[in-house]
UniProtKB/TrEMBL annotation:
Domain EAL residues, every copy: 1242-1494
SUPFAM superfamilies per record: EAL domain-like (SSF141868), NHL repeat (SSF101898), Nucleotide cyclase (SSF55073), PYP-like sensor domain (PAS domain) (SSF55785)
Keywords carried by this UniProt record: Signal
Organism: Pseudoalteromonas rubra
Domain (GGDEF): residue spans on this chain: 1100-1233
Repeat keyword on record: no
Signal peptide interval: 1-22
Domain PAC: 1018-1068
Protein name per Swiss-Prot or TrEMBL: Diguanylate phosphodiesterase
Pfam families in alphabetical order: EAL, GGDEF, PAS_3, Reg_prop
Length: 1498
């Protein structure tokens, strides 16, 4: 069956069952778009929806485009702005034909915004460029247009036009329709048909008399069932068809009189637009019923004419008006009917619904009982039980429930009213109180009815503020349920619900926290379902329930949404809340229809849940409901299958079959784009197909998207993801746009995804690709140019560098060659005689005067080469002068290199010693001398003089007679001496001025007494002026000559001012804390030693308080070190404020402080001081606007009782502080010797424990767990044991230490692997045998606990149910959320969870509801004292009953006597463990006592 056939049948069904409601009901459901919302003008002349979903609205002042959210601009809009548009029509290829009154006709491509004007080109055959087109159609691949009474054809490609046909003079053409291969023409003078270029009149009136009005054809529409629909000014006519031929002789009138403007047919009805409003067409009756009138709407529009109409893809009707814009009505609203009265004095707040056997509907409201007629069109017949007072108290005559029963007369209804239970006589309309024979149990005068429920046809259950009753309709007796009353705390928040079919003796009760079941036979009240977290509400938690065919129990709750339980075990399997698509978590009534849908009324609309697919649909005022709010208790499935729900504005009735068609839902698509930096217009083609481009300086990107539905029924969550240089992901987008301020250059993809609520399934996805251009200087081409230029520059630099390197290498080689020659020439340096033959410039070295027999020849040039490079030029020059003036003397000093001694200085003296006859010099003779030592002495003297002038210390040199020889520049500058001969300016009078008489006398005395080679040091104070004074240290050295006498005195003075200041600062830092200015540990130890000394001297005592701030580190981590430092300063001030003058406060380290009480009268004084200090520190702190709270743990040690030395007293106070921390913090402890012993013991055990874990020294014992019913061994509990040397260490001692040092997880893993290996025979023999393993809180906080245990169990080939895990309540305290997550993962892997030591500790029942506990272990402290403490019997019984009610098993621990076994077995607890059965055994002992093939307990 195709869609339209389904729609036709559905429309017929709706018309058959629907009540014709007054116009205001549907008229008030319409919305409007007018100039206030951005419409260009209020007179609407055309409506079109394009393929993308946009609605095009033509007015007398321009063209508008609407995307479902807002008006969206388009290219060409400004050109058409102000134009009087007469006609728009969507043709093929997305072409929108636009006809204007003065500007001619246009073709606008709705996909690309290409706009083209018609009739501007040649070949238009007399058509004026500004001609107004009356009608248009696409016929045989061309456009056919009508101008007045003339038809033209326009080529769709070239737009060339020519005349096609002309109608009679008064036949003004109003509409065109292509009918197969012909063209139908509607005109003011009748209907015509164009075939083979010939125009023929066509009769559409049939047997109806022709008139000017009914011959004025303004609408033509093809109908697959009827043929041709012809709308005229007076009536709607039908011309039947035979295949493609129209049978005009069989034409008939379908709807008379109405002025037909338009016709639309949708899934919920068939509609006619007329000059008197919107009508609903009934084809069977050949009639139309007024549906919507603008004058009846909230817009108070005076005119009802609808000249244009459009049915969009979402079944919304768009209704154009002449002067009030366009109105929109959801046709889906027609599925809902309203049972109400329009009387001003009528109260439509419906609380109760009841249908009699004859179909009569009875509705209870806040003001009486109302009877509606039976049938498909119920109408209000009469009202009863109304308050005659025109101003009654609100709800004084309210009717909350309506019941009928075969035990009552046929004309009697039972009413639950505000005045109590009353009988209503339908024949007389009178009410009376119910009759009760046993009035002694009836309600008292001050007790009022709260709620009621008909349990069966004979029994009525009701309750008041104080009591619960059963009313027997047959016997007319009341029975008070005292047993039930005693088990309920509050009857105010109680709601009775129908019993489950499989439990006829059940009373189902809804309270503020749970759904409870009460068994009327055994008076037991047990929970059916309980909220994991108690809702913050005083109202009943569950409002209604419904059981489906799939074994699910659906619960409509008041605060936490819709819940489904598995009926077999009542475990929650489905939970639907606002996160899964609900608009509210407050649900009221549940009704199931024949299509397997669950209808749910709520505080925010109506929901339909498909029980097969769990698809959820939501209906509210946008879908035609009179209100979004529904009432509790008001719902019923009627005999006809219709469903009725009560609301504060009447009863809503609908046929569920009308909701079987799938709704038309468009996926999200990008609809528009805006920029803040510049105007931009984008077409759908650009948004869907191309890549948009933006400039680098564009900003304010607004990407708009839409479902193209004005009522915007967005049922899915929308996620957005921007991929590109600037990436971002946005979940649950609420608006219809995405805004980005700026975007980096590059390519982007913007993706919209629709996610079905409650899952990650994507329903649809839309993408937009765009590019943000680079700035011209930042484009890839520019970057490439920059790179090439940089490479060229680097290449040029490299080549220049290579050229320089080559030149330097050549120069270096030359210098190396010259140096080799020079090194060879200067191989030896010595003084001696030499002579030179001047003509040949050959030098003969004769060596020393004693070595004249050995000679060496070299040329003058060779000699020059031997001379130091720095001296060569000078030597050559001197030689040149000498040779130029032979009469002169050569005197030259130069350096020559010696391999043994390096560069040596030589001095040569020479003269011409021989001349020839002509007086020319022949020979020169000379002597060379080694002057290296003299040169060195000169250089050292110069360097020493320069050094003395540059050093910062003062230097004075005195002779043996104390006469000043020299001072350096530093001393001269310091004492203000001139630069010339400063030693002469430093007189005794000047020294006396700076040193003072006494210091000068002492200094002179020391100088006179100094011994040769002695060094003495002395500090003196020198005053420079009134503002400056320095301390100077003098170092006096007596330098002796070769005879041992004092030759001179050297005095070095060093300024100690900065050193003195640094020493002072170091001394402070060594004794005080830099942050708090308090004495540090070192200084405090000195104070403590002094206090101990004074106390021992005076036979008194002193006290030491060791203070440690609790949880200071989290504050330091959260707010930073600066805030932590400020808090420490504030703490210092707080502590100081409570201390007396006999106390000293110091800082130990970090967040630890020390208070020394130097003396006290008695211990009570110390106690009072410590308590006052703790109370003061607990007050709030304000640090940089941050409010902080902190507490302190304090340890107290007393001298002489606790220690005899300062170090020992400090250590013992520290130990006492640790004891205070272990006792819960924010307290203090006095030191005891047991603390020290305990700490020593703990430290030694901690060290031994680490070694034991490394060496795997632990071994296992096993405590049998017995089934006392069949006397079988069902499992064992794993107990770790440790033997340290010859001493057995108790688990109570080493387990806490292991948890504290972080070894417990490794120890547990070792023990588990060992146990699974040792117990393998039991696991193989008995599949139900299990090992019970204790887990610590550290295990519960571990992320991968479940995976780790699953891996270990799998290694041994066992199932997870063979390992049960015991946890204590302490496991929940650190992080309840984390603990719940870990336990849920363990349950997921199939592990059984046991709550150990139940009844001790916190024993919060919340744990049993919040966490998936399977078994409760009753603590042995209750079992062992069953005989001596009788009240423990009640406690054990209560724990067992609690476990039974929660469907949990129980294991009793510590069973030691037969009497205990008997008591527990009588109670029903069959699983036990304890010494009565066996003490903990080793694996071998367990195998011996319980052989796996026997497994029975003796």
């Amino acid at each position: 069956m195709n869609y339209w056939l389904q729609a036709a049948l559905l429309s017929l069904l709706l018309m058959c069952h629907h009540l014709v409601v007054a116009d205001p009901y549907y008229a008030n459901q319409i919305s409007r778009l007018s100039t206030q919302e951005g419409l260009s003008q209020s007179s609407v002349t055309g409506l079109v929806q394009d393929k993308q979903g946009y609605i095009w609205i033509a007015t007398h002042q321009g063209l508008n485009r609407y995307d479902g959210n807002q008006f969206s601009p388009f290219a060409g809009q400004s050109l058409l702005l102000g134009s009087d548009i007469l006609l728009i029509k969507l043709l093929e290829d997305n072409q929108l034909f636009i006809s204007t009154a003065q500007s001619g006709a246009f073709l606008l491509n709705t996909h690309t915004f290409a706009l083209e004007k018609l009739f501007d080109q040649g070949g238009r055959q007399g058509i004026a460029p500004d001609a107004a087109v009356n009608a248009v159609a696409q016929f045989k691949n061309n456009y056919v247009i009508a101008i007045e009474n003339v038809l033209y054809t326009v080529n769709a490609k070239t737009l060339a036009s020519k005349r096609l046909a002309t109608l009679p003079h008064k036949a003004y053409i109003r509409t065109l329709l292509v009918w197969h291969n012909t063209l139908l023409i509607g005109s003011e003078s009748g209907l015509f048909q164009l075939e083979n270029d010939q125009v023929f009149p066509l009769n559409h009136l049939g047997s109806t008399s022709r008139s000017v009005l009914n011959n004025n054809v303004k609408m033509l529409k093809q109908d697959s069932a009827l043929g041709l629909l012809v709308g005229t000014v007076e009536g709607l006519f039908v011309i039947p068809n035979d295949d493609i031929e129209l049978n005009s002789e069989q034409a008939y009138l379908l709807v008379p009189k109405l002025n037909i403007w338009a016709h639309e047919r949708g899934p919920y009805g068939e509609y006619l637009a007329t000059d008197t409003g919107l009508y609903l067409l009934d084809r069977r009756d050949h009639s139309a019923t007024a549906l919507i009138s603008f004058t009846e709407s909230r817009y108070l529009t005076p005119q009802n004419t609808i000249p244009v109409m459009l049915l969009d893809k979402h079944a919304n009707l768009w209704l154009g008006s002449n002067n009030n814009g366009v109105f929109i009505w959801p046709t889906s609203a027609y599925r809902f009917k309203l049972l109400a009265s329009q009387d001003n004095n009528f109260n439509n707040n419906i609380w109760a619904v009841h249908q009699s056997d004859d179909g009569t509907l009875w509705l209870g409201s806040d003001d009486g009982l109302h009877r509606f007629s039976a049938g498909h069109q119920p109408a209000l017949q009469q009202s009863y039980f109304r308050d005659p007072n025109h101003k009654p108290a609100y709800g004084s005559h309210a009717v909350y429930r309506i019941y009928s029963s075969p035990y009552l007369a046929d004309n009697i209804l039972l009413l639950d009213t505000r005045a109590g239970l009353r009988q209503f006589d339908t024949s007389t309309g009178q009410t009376s109180p119910i009759k009760a024979s046993n009035t002694e149990v009836a309600m008292t005068g001050d007790d009022h009815l709260v709620g009621s429920l008909m349990l069966d046809q004979r029994t009525l259950l009701f309750h008041t503020h104080h009591h619960i009753f059963l009313y027997d309709l047959a016997l007319q007796t009341m029975t008070r349920l005292t047993e039930l009353e005693a088990q309920l705390d509050d009857l105010q928040s109680l709601l009775f619900l129908p019993s489950r079919p499989e439990k006829p003796d059940e009373l189902l009760l809804s309270t503020a926290t749970a759904l409870l079941s009460y068994d009327r036979r055994n008076h037991q009240l047990t929970p059916v379902w309980q909220a994991e977290q108690a809702p913050d509400s005083a109202y009943p938690l569950v409002n209604d329930w419904m059981q489906d065919s799939q074994g699910r129990l659906w619960l409509a709750t008041n605060t936490i949404g819709l819940i489904a339980l598995e009926t077999s075990n009542l475990q929650r399997i489905i939970h639907i809340t606002e996160n899964q698509g609900l608009a509210t978590n407050t649900l009221y009534q549940l009704e199931r229809d024949l299509h397997n849908k669950l209808w749910i009324s709520s505080q925010n609309g109506l929901y339909a849940l498909d029980l097969d697919t769990l698809h959820l649909d939501h209906f509210d005022h946008r879908n035609g409901l009179i209100t979004n709010e529904f009432n509790l208790g008001a719902s019923q499935v009627l005999h006809s299958g219709d469903i009725l729900f009560g609301t504060p504005n009447g009863a809503v009735k609908f046929n569920p079959s009308a909701f079987t068609l799938p709704p038309e839902r468009n996926p999200l698509a990008f609809s528009n784009l805006q920029l803040m930096s510049r105007p931009v217009l984008t077409s759908p083609a650009q948004l869907r197909e191309g890549t948009l481009q933006f400039e680098y300086d564009d900003m304010g990107f607004r990407f708009e998207f839409s479902q193209f539905n004005i009522f915007n029924e967005r049922r899915n969550f929308v996620h957005a993801r921007l991929s590109g240089p600037s990436s971002v992901e946005i979940e649950h987008v609420r608006n219809n746009y995405l805004f980005f301020n700026t975007l980096k250059p590059g390519n982007y993809t913007l993706t919209l995804s629709e996610l079905i609520p409650g899952s990650h399934e994507k329903r649809a996805q839309s993408q937009l690709h765009f590019e943000v251009k680079h700035a011209w200087w930042n484009t890839p081409l520019a970057m490439l140019s920059y790179a090439l230029f940089a490479c060229a520059v680097l290449l040029f630099i490299y080549r220049k560098h290579q050229s320089k390197q080559l030149a330097l290498r050549q120069t270096y080689e030359q210098l190396a060659h010259a140096k080799a020659q020079t090194d060879l020439a200067l191989k030896k340096t010595q003084s001696g005689l030499w002579s030179m033959e001047i003509p040949t410039q050959q030098i003969t070295l004769l060596g020393n005067a004693q070595d004249v027999g050995h000679s060496k020849q070299l040329s003058l040039a060779a000699f020059f080469n031997k001379v130091h490079l720095q001296d060569q030029e000078m030597v050559r020059h001197q030689w040149a002068r000498f040779l130029a003036a032979p009469d002169s003397q050569l005197s030259i000093t130069y350096r020559i290199h010696s391999k043994q001694r390096g560069w040596l200085w030589y001095h040569d003296i020479a003269k011409v010693s021989e001349w020839d006859a002509q007086g020319e010099p022949l020979r020169a003779s000379g002597i060379y001398s080694n002057v290296t030592e003299q040169k060195a002495n000169q250089l050292n003297a110069a360097m020493f003089s320069q050094a003395l002038s540059q050093i910062q210390d003062w230097l004075l040199i005195l002779d043996s007679n104390l006469q000043l020889l020299s001072v350096n520049q530093s001393l001269a500058a310091a004492l203000g001496l001139g630069s010339k001969a400063p030693q002469q300016q430093l007189t005794l009078s000047k020294l006396k001025k700076h040193l003072g008489r006494q210091q000068l006398t002492q200094l002179l005395g020391a100088l006179r007494q100094i011994q040769p080679k002695e060094n003495i040091k002395q500090e003196i104070d020198i005053t420079f002026d009134a503002q400056r004074q320095s301390t100077v240290q003098l170092s006096i050295n007596a330098v002796a000559d070769e005879q041992g006498d004092i030759e001179f005195l050297v005095i070095v003075g060093s300024d100690l001012s900065q050193q003195k200041q640094a020493q002072s600062e170091l001394r402070y830092l060594a004794n005080f804390d830099a942050l708090t200015d308090l004495p540090n540990r070192n200084l405090m130890l000195q104070h403590i030693e002094f206090a101990i000394y004074n106390a021992s001297k005076h036979n008194a005592g002193c006290a030491l308080l060791f203070i440690d701030l609790d949880k200071f580190k989290p504050i330091n981590d959260a707010y930073g070190h600066y805030a932590g430092d400020q808090l420490l300063i504030a703490v210092t001030q707080r502590i100081s404020s409570v201390l007396s003058e006999h106390c000293i406060l110091g800082r130990q380290s970090g967040d630890e402080f020390i208070v020394l009480v130097k003396t006290f009268e008695d211990i009570a004084q110390v106690t009072e001081l410590v308590q006052h200090m703790i109370d003061t520190l607990c007050a709030k702190y304000e640090v940089d606007g941050i409010s902080m709270s902190i507490s302190a743990s304090v340890g107290v040690a007393i001298y002489p009782f606790d220690a005899q030395t300062a170090e020992a007293l400090l250590r013992n106070a520290d130990i006492a502080m640790l004891s205070a921390k272990q006792s819960g913090r924010n307290s203090f402890k006095f030191f005891t010797s047991e603390m020290n012993a305990h700490l020593s013991r703990k430290l030694s055990l901690e060290a031994a424990l680490k070694e034991a874990v490394a060496d795997n020294q632990f071994y296992n014992h096993y405590q049998p767990i017995v089934n006392t019913t069949n006397h079988t061994l069902t499992g064992v509990e794993l107990l770790m044991r440790w033997q340290l040397g010859s001493t057995a260490i108790s688990p109570a001692e080493f387990i806490p230490i292991a948890e504290e040092v972080g070894l417990i997880e490794q120890m547990t893993t070792q023990a588990l692997r060992h146990a699974l290996e040792e117990l393998a025979p039991f696991f193989r023999q008995q599949a139900s045998f299990y090992l019970s393993l204790n887990l610590s809180p550290q295990h519960i906080m571990h992320d991968n606990l479940a995976t780790s245990l699953n891996t270990i169990v799998a290694e041994f080939g066992l199932s997870n149910h063979q390992l049960k895990l015991e946890i204590t309540e302490n496991s929940f305290l650190a992080d309840r959320h984390k603990a719940g997550k870990t336990l849920a993962e363990l349950k997921k892997f199939g592990f059984t969870l046991l709550l150990d030591d139940f009844g001790t500790g916190y024993s919060s029942l919340t744990y049993l509801s919040q966490f998936p506990i399977d078994i409760i272990k009753i603590d042995q402290s209750f079992i062992r004292t069953l005989e001596t403490h009788p009240h423990n019997r009640s406690i054990v019984k209560t724990i067992y009953m609690l476990a039974q009610n929660l469907h949990m098993a129980c294991i009793a621990e510590g069973v030691e006597t037969a009497q205990q076994v008997s008591f527990l077995r009588d109670l029903g607890c069959e699983y036990m463990q304890g010494y009565y059965f066996s003490k903990p055994l080793s694996a071998s002992g367990l195998l011996e006592q319980y052989p796996p093939d026997v497994a029975e307990v003796g």
